[in-house]
Amino acid sequence: MRLDIYRRAEHDGIFSYLAVPEGKPIPQEAINTDWTPAAQALEVDDDTQSLPDFHIEALVQQMGSKGYAITGLRHM
Fold first, then answer.
1. Could you give the CA distance from residue 45 to residue 2 in angstroms, rounded to a whole number?
2. Is the CA virtual torsion 30, 26, 41, 59 positive or negative?
3. What is the pTM for the complete model shown?
4. Cα angle vertex 49, ends 1, 2, to 5°?
5. What's 75's DSSP letter?
6. Helices (H), ranges, the chain
7. Residues 6+ apart with CB under 8 A from 7
8. pLDDT, tens only, 29-74
9. With CB atoms counted within 10 Å of each terminal CB, which end of the chain scores lower, N or C?
10. Rounded to 5, what percent of the chain is helix, strand, coil?
11. What are phi and psi of 55, to 5 degrees?
């Protein structure tokens, strides 16, 4: 699968990340003017479970249930 990754500054130089399928808009419930592109058309295997560089876990599960994946709060 191919993903577009966005990031948003949180605090103390920490970022949260949002992954959406390539070319799809950020879902309505996650829209925030602070999201900026971090990576486009990132190729990952369909069974990839995490994106450590972006602190995203349960990738397939999140994409299946929400249509996007986001950094977990425990990484903040």
1. 9
2. positive
3. 0.88
4. 15
5. G
6. 59-66
7. 15, 16, 17, 18, 35, 36, 38, 54
8. 888 778 999 999 999 999 999 999 999 999 999 999 999 999 986 6
9. C
10. 20, 40, 40
11. 55, 35
